[in-house]
From TrEMBL:
A GO molecular-function annotation: catalytic activity
Pfam families from the UniProt entry: Amidase
Amidase domain span: 25-447
InterPro entries per UniProt: Amidase, Amidase_CS, Amidase_dom, AS_sf
Annotated protein name in UniProt: Amidase
PROSITE patterns membership: AMIDASES
Family: Belongs to the amidase family.
Organism: Micromonospora viridifaciens
Highest taxon in the source lineage: Bacteria
């Protein structure tokens, strides 16, 4: 018999509009799952049950004909995202007791749309790494194999969605931080076009690299949450692209992008690194499905190469310079201290030169792939990585291994193009393998429509790990590295 968490986010909302479920019932159901499995998969830093219950009661009081597509649905907010009155640690012991006085714009939008947050999801410290293993929460583990990382920096969000603790979640992506966890955990992780989703009310845009975005089990759920997040806000540093008629959910439901020219490549961009055969196989499968759908798939050169890494590296160092109380600097993790130390040696002239040269390389790269509506490539150079595989290293080696593990995603943060990780592949032992599909700047509609078309061609992506049926953490064997649950 289906349980409430078996329903997609849109199905949960539809059941509430029909009077078959209430938001209070859904929130209580998902809170029980968080209590049973949240620490096992390292999904949450802070759970807010009483706030969630109050929000659910308010959601149930709204007449059915006034509700949006996700009204009353449980969700979660990344711990990098300001949430008024809720502890927000930025994944760091240095901020373990910080409670913001204001909401991020995206938090306001989600609440106004009737979504109900259950709490704050685990992230990497200050968003600096592609794994989420800090001092303020258990490590974010992949529900498909608990010995593996759920990724970062939106690792807790991916763990929560893949384990059925919430159906959709908010995250952010400054160098792959939504798409990497999605690839590892078998989800859809969407980085919107630059400027489409507000980063306010604080911050300066971080050179245009980061963007808030949605993470979910289906393209339609992700598109529906993108409609909630993508609202223009005065004062943002980047002009938002225009929304399509019918919204992004309409594009996903239509799944009709028209005939496209899609450029395929597998050459890594930020590192000269061998690519695992499973990652190439996932791209091959995507190309076959796209061709069968009537698109033209052509081989293209990678837009950028490893020569871009020193430039991106310089910028990433500087982004680690989030203000930290001086007396709490010692509480930062070794990797964060390493990045901040490197940043302190970067002069203004060097930073400006790196930004200028990187943009020049982006312009040349765009010319190399001109004429393509979308680009298709691996999400990662390897399908999975064990928990602790990076953090156990010397910080310099840790940072370099991250570059070699993820040599694709960050380039599309530099270009500002919309980019989505889609769960097209599986390893021999059944672990997820993602691919990246990337669109033209501002054309998120075409990217979402094509992703939905691929999802239909695959017969759907809403698949669940064994832990999905676990009723308590005693049913789960962490040390084996494989989640096992009673049915």
């Amino acid at each position: 018999m289906a349980e409430p968490h078996d329903l997609t986010a849109l199905e949960q909302a539809a059941a509430m509009r029909r009077g078959e479920l209430s938001s209070v019932e859904l929130v209580e159901h998902h809170l029980r799952r968080v209590d049973a499995l949240g620490d096992t998969v390292g999904a949450f830093v802070t759970v807010t049950p009483e706030r969630a219950r109050a929000a659910a009661r308010a959601a149930d009081a709204v007449p059915a004909d006034e509700r949006g597509p996700l009204h009353g649905v449980p969700t979660a907010i990344k711990d990098l995202t300001l949430t008024a009155g809720v502890r927000t640690t930025f994944g760091s012991a240095a901020f373990a007791d910080f409670v913001p006085p204001v909401d991020a714009d995206v938090v306001r939008f989600m609440a106004a749309a009737g979504l109900v947050s259950l709490g704050k999801t685990t992230t990497s410290e200050l968003g600096c790494s592609l794994y989420s293993e800090g001092l303020v929460a258990p490590p974010a583990r992949n529900p498909w194999g608990l010995g593996y990382t759920a990724g970062g920096s939106s690792g807790g969000a991916a763990a929560a969605v893949a384990a059925g603790l919430v159906p959709v979640a908010q995250g952010s992506d400054g160098g792959g931080s939504l798409r990497i966890p999605a690839s590892l955990c078998g989800l859809v992780g969407y980085k919107p076009s630059r400027g489409l989703v507000s980063g306010g009310p604080l911050g300066f845009g971080a050179f245009g690299l980061p963007s808030n975005g949605p993470l979910g089990r289906t393209v339609a759920d992700v598109a529906a949450l993108l409609d909630v997040l993508a609202q223009p806000v005065p004062g943002e540093p980047y002009l938002p692209p225009a929304a399509p008629a019918g919204g992004y959910l309409g594009a996903a439901r239509d799944a009709a992008p028209g005939r496209l020219r899609i450029g395929r490549f597998t050459t890594p961009m930020l590192a000269d690194e061998p690519v695992h055969p499973d990652c190439v196989a996932a791209v091959d499968r995507a190309a076959e499905l796209l061709t069968a759908a009537g698109h033209e798939v052509v081989e293209v050169p990678a837009p950028l190469g490893p020569e871009a890494w020193p430039l991106f590296e310089t910028i990433w160092y500087v982004l680690a310079l989030t203000p930290v109380p001086p007396e709490r600097e010692s509480e930062l993790l070794p990797l964060t201290r390493f990045l901040r130390a490197r940043a302190s040696a970067v002069g203004v002239g060097q930073l400006m030169a790196a930004l200028g040269e990187l943009q020049a390389q982006v312009r040349r790269g765009v010319h190399r792939t001109a004429g393509c509506d979308l680009l298709l490539c691996p999400a990662l150079a390897a399908p999975q990585a064990p928990v602790g595989a990076f953090a156990a290293l010397d910080p310099g080696e840790d940072f370099d291994r991250q570059r070699r593990f993820s040599p694709y995603c960050a380039i599309f943060n530099v270009t500002g193009d919309p980019s989505v990780s889609l769960p097209l592949g599986r390893t021999g032992d059944g672990l997820p393998v993602g691919v990246l599909l990337t669109g033209r700047y501002g054309d998120d509609r075409t990217l979402i429509a094509t992703a939905a078309q691929l999802e239909h061609a695959c017969g759907g992506w809403d698949q669940h790990p064994a832990i999905w049926r676990a009723v308590d953490s005693a049913n789960v064997n962490i040390t084996s590295g494989v989640g096992r649950s009673s049915s």
